[in-house]
Amino acid sequence: AGLRRAFRAGVHGEAREAFCGMVGATPAMHAVFRAVEEAAPSDAPVHLTGEPGTGKELAARALHRLSARRRERAFVAVNLAGLDPDRHLD
Fold first, then answer.
1. Is-contact 46 54, C-beta < 8 A?
2. In sequence order, what are the residues at sequence separation of 6 or more whose Cβ sits closer than 8 angstroms to the Cβ of residue 64?
3. Neighbour count for residue 66 (Cβ, 10 Å)
4. Is 64 helix (H, G, I), strand (E, B) or coil?
5. Which strand (E) or helix (H) includes residue 73?
6. What's the pLDDT band for 1 if we cut at 50, 70, 90?
7. What is the SS3 assignment for 63?
8. Is the pLDDT score of 10 beyond 60?
């Protein structure tokens, strides 16, 4: 259960759990932390989805940081929303 977790005080003094750059104390955030920890050892591709501003890039960075891929390749963030789906890359 979370070797990379730490607790710190929030803006209003409440305890907030920090995990690889992500912060939260709700059951939903704990589920995200667990999912990242479980997926990180795998070599399988991971597809993160969600509304803008929900922390997909933070989760991707945490996956990369905790995986063996970190040693082999750089992390590159790609914003697919900025791509034109009608433009062909060939």
1. no
2. 70, 75
3. 18
4. helix
5. none
6. very low
7. helix
8. no
